[in-house]
């Protein structure tokens, strides 16, 4: 029961705090691609892989007061910050969650910008393509982001290292 | 004349209760409709188990797919000659609109959950695999099937084309809201689509709405909001879906134990149970086949499978109460124990269902570039996000829209011989709020 909610709670508990909805989406997607057992369904949207299910589940966790959402006005947009509450921790304590490697991977992801995570998530979305085609696809679906060769190189290295953590 | 330009000598029309007529002039579209993979959609209901609540909801994915095609056809007609619109993309848009739901299977939401499938992946496989649909698309030009698949996957380079089929105000939603409203018989879900089509404007990478058309869009958003709560999230439909999901879990479990001998070998399900579903196996499974098995599984020796199938086929649904995991977690754990002790397997008969378990989405302003919102085109050429300009949309965009329900079989509880356990279970369940009989509420 509510196992998928509990997995997300585990994520928030380990992450301590996550800033930004887009960043949250990309973090969970990347963790899913690293074989961590998040089951939210992602589709490709304008800004890369996005899960409506994840958005709604986070909204449910907020409504249950398991996580706290803080909204910050950044003049031309709002930014959201998420953290686990005491009620959330009590809920989580009732589940025996074993997600090996979660802590290390979250630490790697947290330090990155949402722009970079969007690039990583997009490259992972097309990971069935050979590298050259994958890079080409990123430029095709995200022409406005104008990712540089250096950023792409950094993303390739990052994907290799976060996948390494897996093994 | 090239196949892609070939027109039927006489335009074909499908009589349609929502759009009055669906017009087909392109040979390619006519051939796609006749393809077996598209005809299969006639045997898959658009709304799965919703007909348990709204008996009229028997319409199919075939009806809906034609409807989406027709809306896109009308949008393109209005776009012709406008800046940013490239009419070379016309046939691509029409094909993608027609085929966007091609990978849906029977009761696809439950099947996807239990067997970890993704209908979008199957849409891609059907379009790109060895199918009649693929053959037709490749006749248009080499690589055309891939383009259609990319539009549907939202990874096509021209985002304007993608947004016609898939955005927060797209042909898909405009069709299903009206069609579902029509077939369920509810009075919500109606909006002035003609007006919206007239105020849609193509810009570089998306479709936007002329600011003067804002009220028509407000009406559309309100319809969407009403339909979610009144139709898509209806708790009785969810009760049927809970049972359906549990049947699939049970059948899979029995198959995996290897000790259970099905009286009728579940041939059509085996690849689903083993997690290796080939395209031809996927295409064979439709609602007729699923119903056939459910009908016969009512005679199987396994008590749980038999009971769940009997409930599903005869609409003997679970009852439900509202459930708050924050306040009632301890009670739920006690209930779980009590059900187990009483011999009612809680894995199948005590189910929490959350709104996030359902496949429908709400309008979201897409803050922090989470997803692309609806943009209004202001008279000075600026774009404004809809909820920042419309009080009505803003008021429902911020609403908390989640709920959790606890489903269980009241009749099994009533027949428990142990009065003490029965009383305690009832105390917990009915102490959580009004008991609702899913068999009676409409």
Automatic annotation (TrEMBL), chain A:
Domain of life: Bacteria
Name under which the protein is recorded: YwgA family protein
Biological source species: Oceanobacillus jordanicus
From TrEMBL, chain B:
Record-linked Gene3D superfamilies: Hypothetical protein af1432
Bilayer-crossing regions: none
GO BP terms in the entry: dGTP catabolic process
Gene Ontology terms, MF aspect: dGTPase activity
InterPro entries registered for this protein in UniProt: dGTPase-like, HD/PDEase_dom, HD_assoc_2, HD_domain
Pfam family, one: HD
Ranges of residues in domain HD: 61-177
Record protein name field: HD domain-containing protein
